[in-house]
Amino acid sequence: MRKFSTVSVVGLGYIGLPTAAVIASRGVKVIGVDVNARAVSAINEGRAHFFEPELDALVAGAVRSGNLRAVTAPEPAEAFIIAVPTPVAEDMAPDLSYVEAAARSIAPVLRPGDLVILESTSPVGTIEHVSALMAEARPDLRFPGQHGARQHGDAADVLMAYCPERILPGRMITELVENDRIIGGLSEAATDAAAALYGVFVRGELLRADGRTAEMVKLVENASRDVSIAFANELSKVCDKFGLDVWRVIALANRHPRVNILNPGPGVGGHCIAVDPWFIVHAAGDLAPLMRTAREVNDSKPAYVAAQVAARVRPGERIACLGLAYKADTDDLRESPAIDVVEHLAANGLGPLLAVEPNVAALPAKLSALGVEKVDLETALAQADLLLLLVDHREFRDLDRDLLAGRRIHDTRGAWRDVPAASARPGPRAVA
User: Fold this and answer.
1) Residues in the chain, pLDDT under 70
2) Buried b (16+ CB within 10 A) or exposed e, 181-212
3) Does 168 lie in the same domain as 134?
4) How far apart are CA 428 and CA 432, in angstroms?
5) Is the omega angle on the peptide bond into residue 352 within 30 degrees of 0, that is, cis?
6) Strands 115-118 and 159-162: what pairing?
7) Do 242 and 197 fall within a single domain?
8) Which residues are catalytic?
């Protein structure tokens, strides 16, 4: 089995940095690459530049051992893992500019026998596109599918594979090691090499596939979750119409042995589930109406929550928005529906608005520009007329219920269902 002494991880964000640190902790030299000079500096000082349980200690240890260092431009290595963002454009088309930039930056330092792995969630065919870009930049090397290399890449100088990440913020270090991984090489040799690399740190099963299948599997995983969440979010609106407790309805329905409904929330966030289904919809068009509708249902939920809140407050009443991250106990604000809710409230003149987010030091600039004030939980409890629970962070879940008794609460997560409802104080206002 092939052994790697030097691995480069390109993109040191929420996926790349934990991956680099875990590989380095196994005694492999890792060169992390990122265009963000501040992130590079923090990592070289032994600090993670975002919050994730266990990550700071892991990075510190890897840097101290000499196995991890960060740079702003690629250097030669035996294997390259690309873990950069893949957002969508205004028309929901995939934006591959970060992946393409990473591929072009790596190309000059490639040598025969190197392995290139793409982890970024991508439309079907992207790893082949990356291979073609590199072939264009390095005509002296043979790449999979290129003239002179057999169709499936067995005669290529550079091995190419797609191996999607599948980890959850808040549990990244554990899931990097424990979860099964899909290994989608453009050749048997590439699949073998990628499996050898992931075998250094993954205890889960390494499942072999071709590149296109691996790309589709990742998209399907997230689209499936999105559809399931959309059902829960739509159900929450239906239960509101009939005056029913959606969480109780779901809990009782889930007692059926073949029913497993998820819980609703203020929408869907993060850089995966809120984005990746569009890759399928964009490519498949009319063949994916269910996935398109699920995206629309989930994207509509923040405005719906804001309208519910508007119906419960009078002009000038203070609203404390508890939580801005897209999921509990992280500082990840990417595509957060909680932020969308606060923006809807601010744009429609509700408030004053107070925001409590214990995991970030400062508000996003767009909320500060709208006049939202960041406060701590004690201040919010003292000043707010209505508490709007948007994210069930530990600090909010564990809050002394005596501090909530008699308060007006709007709970989008079902975490405070044990708190007796306060008397209604009507003051409906329309929210567009």
Assistant:
1) 146-154, 421-432
2) bbbbbbbebbbbbbbbbbeeebeeebebbbbb
3) yes
4) 13
5) yes
6) parallel
7) no
8) 218, 272
Which pairing describes strands 159-162 and 181-185: parallel, antiparallel, or unpaired?
antiparallel
pLDDT in tens, 202-251: 999 999 999 999 999 999 999 999 999 999 999 999 999 999 999 999 99
**Residue 354 to residue 377: CA distance in whole angstroms:** 10
pTM metric for this prediction = 0.90
**Model confidence pLDDT, tens digit, residues 33-89:** 999 999 999 999 999 999 899 999 999 999 999 999 999 999 999 999 999 999 998
140-141-146 Cα angle (round to 5) = 115
Structure tokens at 287: 């063949």
Q: Rounded to 5 degrees, what angle do the CA atoms 281, 286, 288 make? A: 45
CATH number, residue 171:
3.40.50.720
At 63 the three-state DSSP class reads helix
229 and 293 Cβ atoms separated by less than 8 Å: no
Q: Are 188 and 156 in contact (CB under 8 A)?
A: no
Is residue 228 located within the same domain as residue 365?
yes
